[in-house]
Design brief:
CATH topology: Double Stranded RNA Binding Domain
Oligomer: single chain
CATH superfamily: Alpha-isopropylmalate synthase LeuA, regulatory domain
Helix content: 25-40%
Structural class: alpha+beta
Number of strands: 6
Distance between the termini: 24 Å
Strand order of the largest sheet: 1-2-3
Order of helices and strands: EEEHEEEH
Strand content: 35-45%
Number of helices: 2
Shape: globular
CATH class: Alpha Beta
Radius of gyration: 16 Å
CATH architecture: 2-Layer Sandwich
Length: 141
């Protein structure tokens, strides 16, 4: 008996997803630049974003760079916008959240990730990926 979530799927089976390889951040003259590198099917894809070096701007820059890397993974088949990014306390945990817009869709994509050991950049990347992983799998599947 098939107990999966869809036709032909096994319950424990998960599609291959893009994984974080690196987060490179630089700041100079009040400007910050972030390069996010993802791996998918043994290939590396990068995305870059820049903006104010203010600490409050960092999550948005990381999120934008992540979206550019994802667009690279999909060969431009996904056109994405970062509608909102935030980090908040949830009980005793800290959580990064992302709301992503997909061109051609009025429904926002939402994702979240726990912040581990005060590494909010990695949590931000994971939240963005969480928001778009299903769509990315549909495009790449």
């Amino acid at each position: 008996m098939n107990q999966g979530m869809g036709p032909g799927s096994d319950f424990g089976e998960r599609p291959e997803r893009a994984a974080i390889v690196g987060i490179q951040e630089t700041a100079e003259n009040g400007q910050a630049s972030v390069i996010i590198t993802l791996t998918y099917h043994d290939e590396e894809f990068s995305g870059t974003a820049s903006g104010s070096a203010a600490v409050s701007a960092r999550p948005r820059i990381v999120g934008e760079a992540t979206l550019r890397a994802v667009e690279s993974v999909t060969g431009g088949r996904l056109q994405l916008s970062l509608d909102a990014i935030a980090t908040t306390d949830l009980g005793e945990s800290r959580v990064a959240m992302a709301q992503v817009g997909l061109m051609g869709s009025s429904e926002p994509l939402v994702g979240s990730a726990l912040v581990q050991t005060s590494d909010s950049a990695t949590a931000t990347v994971k939240a963005v990926l969480d928001a778009i992983n299903r769509r990315m799998a549909q495009i790449l599947g």
